[in-house]
Design goal:
- The strands form twelve sheets. Strands 33, 34, 36, 37 and 38 form a five-stranded antiparallel beta sheet that branches. Strands 1-30-29-28 form a four-stranded antiparallel beta sheet, with no helix packed on it. Strands 2-3-4-5 form a four-stranded antiparallel beta sheet, with no helix packed on it.
- With about 625 residues, the chain is mostly beta strands.
- Helices cover about 5% and strands about 45% of the residues.
- Strand 36 and strand 37 (about 515-520) form a beta hairpin.
- The longest helix has 18 residues, at about 1-20.
- It is built from one helix and 45 strands.
Length: about 625
C-alpha cells in the first residue's frame, strides 16, 4: 500500500513540476507606498543575496535567493527621489543610484546621488552627489560596473540625462547624455562630461535624449545607447570613460520612444544596452533592446539589434516577442547571464488577454540574439488603470542560470512589486569549436572549445567532414565524454586522426540530457605529420607583378627562404626567422628584377628544397 501510494505521489509530483508555473514572490511589504520603477541585482560573491529597489525610496533585500524579502527605506541628506538603480561590483559592494531632492539651497533633481552598502543593504553611507550644475536638472540615471577588465576592474560608471530646464518647451533649452565614473568604489565621482553629440529638447518626450544605460565590454570598453530626435544612437569609450567617440546611428524608432498603451499612465520604449563578457561563443557582442510601435499604435513590440564588432556596425532589427497578434508588449528590460552568455528579456504582454489585462513574459536567447523563446512568468493577469502612475520600466537579473525578473502589478489602484524565480538549468547553450593542434609525438589531436559550467555532464561527439563539394558527409572519428569545467578552455585528446597531412574540417555535436543535440560551426584544421616539411609551387606562375609562396613546417623551426637568379646569385631573402608549426605564406613582389627564371629555396630544421618560378614583365 505504501509503495503504491509513493508511486501515485511520485507521478503527481512529476505532473505538477512539468505543468507548474514559475513561483511568484511578492517583494514589497504590504505597508509599502505605491512602489514602481523597479531594479534588481544579484550579489556575485554570494547569489543568495539579492537586492531590489523601487520608487521613491524603497529598498528590498533577500538573503535566501529570492524566497523571502525585507523592505526598508533609503535616506540621504541629498534626498531620495526615485529612478532607483541597484548594482553590485565584483567584491559584493552594493550601489544604489537615485535622484535627489535636498533641502535649500538645493532643489528637486539638482544632481544624481549614489549610495554604497558593504553589507547587502543593511547599512548605507550618505552617498555622493554627482552632476550638480545649478539651475539644470539631472534625471533618468543608470549604473554599470566593470567586473573583470585588467585596467578598469572595479570602476563604477553612470549615465543620465541632463535638462537645462525639465519640461521646458523653449527652443533655448536642451537635454544631453552625461557620464561620470568612480574609481574608488563609489565614494568619489569624476566631473560630469557630455557623451551625446546631438542634444534633444527638454519636454521629456520623443525629441528628448533619454534612456542611457551603460555597460562594459570584455576589455573594459564602456558602451551606451539612448533614444532621441535622431533615433537610436550609440557611443563608446575605450579608455575607461575618460573620452568618447563620435555618436553612431543604430536604427530608427518608428513612432518615437514615447507612445500610448491603454491602461498605462505613461509608456515609453527607452533602450537598454548590454554586452556579453562571458566565455560563450558570443563574447563581445553588444545588444540594444527597446520597444516601439512600428507595427501600429495598437501593437507595441519588443526589439533587439546587435553589434559583433564593437559597435561599428549593427544588425537588422529583430522582434523578441514571438507572437503574431496585434496586441501590446511593452516596458522591456534585458540582461545577460555572464556565466553562460544567455540573454534574458522581461516585458508586459497582452497576447493571451483581452482589453487591458496584462501578463508578464520572459524571453530567452541562447544563440546570441538570433532566435528567442518566450514564456509566461506571472501567475495571473492584472488590469491596470491609467489614473495611477505605473512607472517607466521593469528589470531583470540573471546569474548561473538563476533568473529574477521584477515587475509591478496594479490591481484596483494598488501597486505591488513581484519577482518570479526562474531556474533555467535546462537551457542548451550552443558550443563553438575554437581550434585544433596536433601533438607530433603521439599524433593525438587536441580539441579546444569555449566552455562554462552549463556544459557539465553533457556529451560531445567529434565528427569529421568529408572533403566533398557539398561538405555534407560526416565520419565519426572519436567520442569525447563531455564534462565541462568552469575554466575558459578545456582540451580533450582522441586518436584516429587522418592518415596523411592535409586540410580537414570538424564540427562538435553537443548532446543534451534528453538526447537532443546541436552542432557547432565547422572548423578547418591542417594536419602536418612529423618530418613533413614542404614548400609549394608559387602561385601564380609565371607571375607579374607578385606571387605567393606557401610552405609548411611540422614543428617550430628557424626558417630561411631565399631567392636566386639562374647563376646562383642570391637576390633577396624573404624569410629569416623562427616560425611556429603550421602552414605559412610569404609574398614576393620584385620591383627591380628583370624577366626571367628564378629559384627559391627553403631551409628549416635540416630540411632543404628548391623550386623554380618565372617572372614575366
Amino acid at each position: 500500500m505504501k509503495k503504491a501510494l509513493l508511486t501515485v505521489l511520485s507521478l503527481f509530483l512529476v505532473s505538477f513540476i512539468t505543468n507548474a508555473q514559475y513561483i511568484n514572490v511578492r517583494i514589497d511589504d504590504p505597508t509599502s507606498n505605491q512602489p514602481e520603477e523597479v531594479s534588481i541585482a544579484i550579489n556575485p560573491t554570494n547569489p543568495n543575496f539579492i537586492s531590489a529597489a523601487a520608487n521613491i525610496n524603497h529598498f528590498f533585500r533577500s538573503s535566501d535567493a529570492g524566497l523571502t524579502w525585507q523592505t526598508s527605506y533609503l535616506t540621504s541628506s541629498f534626498g531620495v527621489w526615485g529612478d532607483p538603480s541597484v548594482v553590485y561590483d565584483e567584491l559584493g559592494n552594493l550601489y544604489f543610484g537615485h535622484l535627489s531632492n535636498p533641502p535649500f539651497p538645493g532643489y528637486w533633481i539638482d544632481r544624481i546621488v549614489v549610495q554604497r552598502s558593504t553589507d547587502n543593504g543593511i547599512n548605507w553611507n550618505d552617498g555622493a552627489g554627482v552632476g550638480f550644475l545649478n539651475p539644470k536638472n539631472q534625471d533618468k540615471e543608470w549604473l554599470g560596473v566593470d567586473m573583470h577588465s585588467p585596467n578598469y576592474k572595479g570602476n563604477v560608471y553612470m549615465t543620465w540625462t541632463e535638462f537645462d530646464n525639465y519640461g521646458s518647451s523653449s527652443p533655448s533649452d536642451s537635454s544631453r547624455i552625461k557620464f561620470s565614473r568612480s574609481t574608488d568604489r563609489g565614494l568619489n565621482w569624476s566631473n560630469a562630461i557630455t557623451v551625446s553629440d546631438k542634444s534633444g529638447d527638454c519636454i521629456d518626450e520623443d525629441n528628448t535624449v533619454e534612456g542611457a544605460v551603460p555597460c562594459v565590454g570584455p576589455n573594459g570598453e564602456v558602451y551606451v545607447s539612448w533614444a532621441g530626435p535622431l533615433g537610436l544612437m550609440f557611443d563608446k569609450s575605450t579608455n575607461g570613460g575618460t573620452s568618447w567617440n563620435v555618436d553612431k546611428f543604430v536604427t530608427t524608432i518608428p513612432g518615437g520612444w514615447d507612445y500610448a498603451v491603454p491602461g498605462i499612465y505613461r509608456a515609453n520604449g527607452l533602450p537598454v544596452t548590454a554586452c556579453d563578457t562571458s566565455q560563450s561563443p558570443f563574447r563581445g557582442n553588444i545588444y540594444i533592446n527597446w520597444t516601439d510601435q512600428r507595427n501600429g499604435t495598437g501593437n507595441t513590440d519588443v526589439f533587439l539589434c546587435k553589434s559583433t564588432d564593437g559597435g561599428n556596425t549593427w544588425s537588422a532589427v529583430k522582434k523578441v516577442n514571438d507572437d503574431n497578434t496585434t496586441r501590446h508588449q511593452f516596458f522591456t528590460w534585458m540582461t545577460i547571464d555572464q556565466t553562460t552568455g544567455i540573454i534574458y528579456f522581461v516585458f508586459y504582454d497582452r497576447r493571451n488577454t483581452a482589453n487591458n489585462f496584462t501578463d508578464v513574459f520572459v524571453a530567452r536567447s541562447t544563440d546570441g540574439g538570433e532566435t528567442f523563446t518566450n514564456f509566461k512568468v506571472s501567475e495571473s493577469s492584472f488590469n491596470p488603470s491609467s489614473s495611477v502612475f505605473f512607472g517607466d520600466y521593469t528589470n531583470i537579473a540573471a546569474l548561473n542560470k538563476m533568473v529574477y525578473p521584477i515587475w509591478m502589478r496594479l490591481d484596483t489602484g494598488t501597486l505591488t512589486v513581484w519577482t518570479a524565480i526562474v531556474n533555467d538549468s535546462s537551457a542548451v547553450i550552443p558550443v563553438e569549436l575554437n581550434s585544433f593542434t596536433t601533438s607530433l609525438s603521439d599524433r593525438n589531436v587536441k580539441l579546444y572549445w569555449q566552455t562554462a559550467s552549463e556544459l557539465n555532464n553533457r556529451g560531445f561527439d567529434i565528427e569529421r567532414c568529408a572533403l566533398s563539394a557539398e561538405r555534407l558527409a560526416w565520419d565519426k572519428i572519436g567520442f569525447v565524454n563531455g564534462k565541462g569545467t568552469t575554466t575558459e578552455t578545456t582540451n580533450y585528446s582522441f586518436i584516429d586522426e587522418p592518415t596523411q597531412s592535409g586540410l580537414y574540417s570538424y564540427r562538435l555535436k553537443q548532446i543534451d540530457f534528453d538526447g537532443s543535440f546541436k552542432y557547432s560551426s565547422e572548423v578547418d584544421v591542417n594536419f602536418i605529420f612529423e618530418n613533413d616539411f614542404r614548400i609549394s609551387q608559387n602561385y601564380p606562375n609565371p607571375f607579374n607583378p607578385s606571387t605567393t609562396i606557401e610552405y609548411q613546417i611540422p614543428q617550430a623551426s628557424f626558417v630561411t627562404i631565399q631567392v636566386y637568379d639562374v647563376l646562383g646569385k642570391e637576390v633577396v631573402t624573404l624569410i629569416n626567422e623562427e616560425k611556429p608549426a603550421g602552414i605559412h605564406e610569404v609574398n614576393f613582389e620584385p620591383k627591380e628584377l628583370t624577366s626571367g627564371l628564378y629559384l627559391y629555396k627553403i631551409s628549416a630544421g635540416g630540411f632543404e628544397q628548391t623550386r623554380k618560378m618565372m617572372l614575366l614583365k
